[in-house]
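Hi U.,

Before I forget, here's the chain from the pilot set. I'm dumping it here mostly so it's searchable later in email.
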Amino acid sequence: MNFTSLNHLKTDCFLLNIWLPFYMKSIIVVLGVFIFSIFVEGFIRIIVLFYHKTEFTFWGVSSLPSPGWAVALVIASLLIYWLSGMLVVTATMYSPKKHLLSLGMLLLLLKGSEVLQTYSIEPMWYLIMILSSPFIGLYLAYYTHSKIHEKNS
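Structure:
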């Protein structure tokens, strides 16, 4: 495939102020936002667990002090995935569905491994929520992005 014919699709990304071919920007942005979402979700869990001085576990809700904290972590993860989706569609500026699906597949692999490791210990509602929360958050980001573009058109 001749990538020089695709030069008209180059966009200036505010996260990467260098000229890269558009496919490189896509890969870098999706992977960067994936790492960002893992970091922020883990950081929130660390704050909650250190606040309550409980044993640190990166996954699951069985170590949390009360079910209210589990619900708070699920809501926080929804917000993280919405923010991650908004970062992806803002930074790539074209084909938001493709980029959000790429990010969603990476998050599905991560959350699927979490379910496989904790399905015998964690409650079923939590397992369902951790598998669905990335897609709910990313869909809300796509919906927000499309409404903003619809309003500005």
